[in-house]
Amino acid sequence: QVQLVESGGGLVQAGGSLRLSCAASGRIFSINNMGWFRQAPGKQRELVAVISSGGSMNYAESVKGRFTISRDNAKNTVYLQMNSLKPEDTAVYYCKMAVVTSVFEHDYWGQGTQVTVSS
């Protein structure tokens, strides 16, 4: 069993910053891609950022230049540094990791953390 626990969400003013963390625990051999998604009420869940095991990064166009994804393999943790936050960034943020526990890879999701940006 693998569990992903998120932290770091909260309420900030527009232009402010937050740093989200997501740590995996359990039966883990290795982790391939790690990523962050977000979902606002009544909207589709969208990919925000993803980072590969080799450190290659991709971002949604809406957050490019403002958000930075990083990972610490020794801690099985992925981070999302969010700067210059806008009200449209308000959403529940979910982390996802592709965890290898045997010969198979399986995606696991965090519980979600609320990010609210006020004007």
Percent range for helical residues?
under 10%
Mean pLDDT: 97
- Oligomer classification: single chain
Order of helices and strands: EEEEEEEEEEE
Beta-strand segment tally: 11
Q: Mind telling me the C-alpha Rg?
A: 14 Å
Cα-to-Cα separation, first versus last residue: 41 Å
Describe the protein in words.
The chain contains no helices and eleven strands. It has strands at 2-7, 10-13, 18-26, 30-39, 46-51, 57-59, 67-72, 77-82, 91-100, 105-109, 113-118. The radius of gyration is 14 Å and the shape is elongated. It starts with a strand and ends with a strand. The strands form two sheets. Strands 2, 4, 5, 6, 9, 10 and 11 form a seven-stranded mixed beta sheet that branches. A four-stranded antiparallel beta sheet has the order 1-3-8-7, with no helix packed on it. By secondary structure, it is mainly β.
